[in-house]
Amino acid sequence: MDEKVGNFKIAGKSGNARAAELTTFHGKIETPIFMPVGTKATVKAMLPEELKEQIGAQIILGNTYHLHLRPGEDIIKKLGGLHKFMNWDGPILTDSGGFQVFSLSKLRKMSEEGVEFRSHIDGRKHFISPEKSMQIQMDLGSDIIMAFDECLEYPAEPSRIRESMALTHRWLKRSKEAMTRKESLLFGIVQGGLDYNLRMESMDQICSEDLPGFALGGFSVGEPIHLMHELVDKVAHKMPENKPRYLMGVGTPLDLILSIDAGIDMFDCVLPTRVARNGTLYTWQGKVSIKRAEYKEDPSPLDPECDCYTCTNYSKAYLRHTFLTGEIIASRLNTIHNLHFYLQVVKRARKAILDGTWEEYRDDCVRRFTQTR
Amino acid sequence: MDEKVGNFKIAGKSGNARAAELTTFHGKIETPIFMPVGTKATVKAMLPEELKEQIGAQIILGNTYHLHLRPGEDIIKKLGGLHKFMNWDGPILTDSGGFQVFSLSKLRKMSEEGVEFRSHIDGRKHFISPEKSMQIQMDLGSDIIMAFDECLEYPAEPSRIRESMALTHRWLKRSKEAMTRKESLLFGIVQGGLDYNLRMESMDQICSEDLPGFALGGFSVGEPIHLMHELVDKVAHKMPENKPRYLMGVGTPLDLILSIDAGIDMFDCVLPTRVARNGTLYTWQGKVSIKRAEYKEDPSPLDPECDCYTCTNYSKAYLRHTFLTGEIIASRLNTIHNLHFYLQVVKRARKAILDGTWEEYRDDCVRRFTQTR
């Protein structure tokens, strides 16, 4: 590694949109970037080599909550860490477990210390604190470790939000203290709900810590999407200029474009993989539901402007047939296409920012992504 | 194609075991061979390129019954045939639909003309005759077309078997008349149940027809496996010497070895792919159930003597974890291993026959395959 882990170099800008490079222990990441989600040590339906070679994925995400429950970070550590366990030698970002504790588990008991919760699988009691979350993520051998935060429901009262922001800040200090692994980068998470002033207040707190990156958290909890866009538009570019900015759990191709325009560098979302398995595909001509009867005898590729494995080798009729008959190949081909599409969207965004054609590209994407076929 | 479609050249023998080459329109097949089953235009969990490059598959099977019901051979024909539809450019063998009509569908009405049945999917009425089966298989563009036969339940009365054999022979004559596609090879199917004399009587009938290959049908219908082996042992080598011999729907790795020893050249079976998805794996050290607790932290590969993608890149602990969490990658990795294993079994059998070490290899396999880990 010729450059220091955590190094963040901006290569070009267009308005608030940036093209940059982040150095991690397992290699460099070119931003803007989308990170496919590998919840339980696998990006569903994909092999690591396919992610790298067919999709162009540069970094993937692992879920601390899920891996803690199964198989357990102790086992993964014994087996040489998450990279070796899942056969992926590129960068990995792990979330803190906070979001899943709040969205998946039952019977939570919050305290200053942390969160006691019951597993959504077998109901067994678990406890996660900032220190525990750091230990798990360090045991996994994560390249980018997320601070343990509280994730609020939507909507929440301003007083409740402010209380939670303060807790998240105290937890960040404890996360920072506990994260001692020098190969890993710790990112702080800005909370504050959808209110601009609260969000800025949280940003002041969180970004006052000296950390290699920052995220906007607390989205994808049921809020109206236009409110998220309005807020991200106002706050993203106020995050530290010389650090990567990560918008957690977002979103559609349109969300990516609008958020890159607002100054965001990194994204993750289960959307492209999840909807692929349900037969929904993103294309340069808009969103497609592959089960539609009109595709029954259609010999044409899903997306004539796409050069992914799926679009190169199969007809819409084949995708429809294998989807309707519940074949695994349908999940595979649809996932390959959607992830390839997402990675193309950010790759072309980067190129446009560097080439000085960002506004043109952005407007073209907005026009395309608001169509439905 | 430098050699005539249907050409069958024996390259070596050891006792009744043979190593040969069969020329089809889509290329040559080296026997003994195992044919992965691609029921509904996909070998479950696999891509065609993986079958070719990772597994070494030379020919795959398609199911006439399933493809007739969904998406329909008319659609596949319009789209350029089964090879193009499913992106597989190697040889394809299709069964006649007979076996599935008898095992899957309800409310069958048999007549001299054919079988009326209701779809196992939506209950709709269908009719398959020898002529209809040939039309479907020709529309699919199959390289090896199986004659339409009656498949009896086990056990059946000798008088019933004899009646059925005669019908199967009449249907073969009609199949032969109807199969007019010069790129395809028609194989006849010997029936006759488990009785030696009846089986030989059927063989006399079926093999009196001038056809490029013959199969033993009517197995895998619940009969005790040792009775099948006894019968195959007695009859396989009496099938025409200069034609490929195909044992339909069989079997375990042990079944393959014993049947190759009896003179069989070709096999197909859903077993390796089906049990893979259920976590059962065949190895050179015996059968393995991957979900066993002892593999929880096991860093070693599934089969240290195997060089498949799965055994090269993943631990037993990872295979167990992804199987228990229901991840698609588990079906993929397990299927890759099992199919690779089956293809290795027949590839090494071929080599042993040609090298004059068949008996040694056979005995070693029998010893290995009767172990359970």
Task: Give a brief rundown of this model.
With 373 residues, chain A is of the alpha/beta class. In chain A, 42% of the residues lie in helices and 18% in strands. The first copy, chain A, has helices spanning 48-55, 64-69, 73-78, 82-86, 98-103, 130-140, 158-178, 196-206, 225-235, 253-262, 271-277, 309-313, 316-324, 328-355, 358-369, and strands at 8-14, 17-24, 27-31, 33-35, 60-62, 92-94, 106-110, 115-118, 125-128, 144-146, 185-190, 213-216, 245-247, 266-268, 280-283, 286-289.
List keywords for this structure.
homodimer, 373 residues, alpha/beta, TIM Barrel, three-stranded antiparallel β-sheet, 15 helices, globular
The assigned CATH architecture of chain A is Alpha-Beta Barrel
Protein chain pair with the most extensive contact, residues per chain: A-B, 34 and 34 residues
- Reading side by side through the largest sheet of chain A, how are the strands ordered? 4-14-13-12-11-10-6-5
**Spatial shape of chain A:** globular
How many structurally independent domains of chain A? 1
How many β-strands of chain A, per DSSP?
16
Kindly report the oligomeric state of this protein: homodimer
Q: What is the radius of gyration of chain A computed over CA atoms, rounded to a whole number of angstroms?
A: 20 Å
Span from first to last CA of chain A? 46 Å
The average pLDDT value of chain A, as a whole number, equals 96
Enumerate the spans of chain A where pLDDT stays under 50 for 5 or more consecutive residues.
Answer: none
CATH superfamily of chain A: Queuine tRNA-ribosyltransferase-like
Highest-level CATH class of chain A:
Alpha Beta
